[in-house]
Amino acid sequence: METLWMIEPWHWLVLGFVLLIVEMFVPTFASLWFGAAAIIVAALTWLLPIGFSVQIVIWLVLSAVFLVVWFKFIKPLSVDRTKAGLGGSVIVGETGMIVLQPQPDRAGVVRFSVPIVGAAEWMCRTRGEVVAVGDRVVVTDIVGNELIVSSMKSQAVLNKNRQIQ
Fold first, then answer.
1. Structural domains in the chain (count)
2. What pLDDT, in 10s, does the model give residues 28-73?
3. In this structure, what are the phi and psi dihedrals at residue 39, rounded to the nearest 5 degrees?
4. 71 and 97 inside one domain
């Protein structure tokens, strides 16, 4: 009895590379995993005499495993931490470092290690507190386009006083 479907290893290899190329134009990472699974099936089919139905099952299982691993473990590591597009209130509580000291007559500049709402540096002022270049500060409020910051040291004292009361 002849088999109607005769799939050679190079068929799987071509399918795998076509899916990898499709991934370049469709940025979902879905076809990437189907393509990688097809390339692995090509290698297994080349090494071992595997029937067509077993090849399909291996391809489906590998694709499912790759997708689960991607969405469960790998993708959460690449979450956008910039908070771009969110309201200004997401900045309150963030910590940064003073790179230009604020003066009573002009704003200073605070730099964040990760861009916050699309920018790594923001204009800042204090509420009468003196902070120097290199001081770590925490954002306490936003007024217009400027951040109101407070020294991490003064925030630690406030938190300690709250715990005592």
1. 2
2. 777 899 999 999 999 999 999 999 999 999 999 999 999 999 888 8
3. -65, -40
4. no
Note the pLDDT tens digit of each residue in 80-118.
555 555 566 678 889 999 999 999 889 999 999 888 877
4 in a structural domain: no
Give the confidence band of 159 by pLDDT, cuts at 50, 70, 90: low
Q: Is residue 138 part of a domain?
A: yes
End-of-domain residue from the set 78, 108, 128: 78
CA-wise closest residue to 125 among 142, 111, 114, 62: 142
Residues 17 and 62 in one domain: yes
Closest CA to 67 of 88, 112, 94, 37: 37
| Domain boundaries, position 113 | 88-164
Q: Which amino acid is at 52?
A: F
Pinpoint the alpha helices (H) of the chain.
9-25, 30-47, 52-69, 152-164
How many Cα atoms occupy the beta-carbon half-sphere of 88 within 13 Å? 11
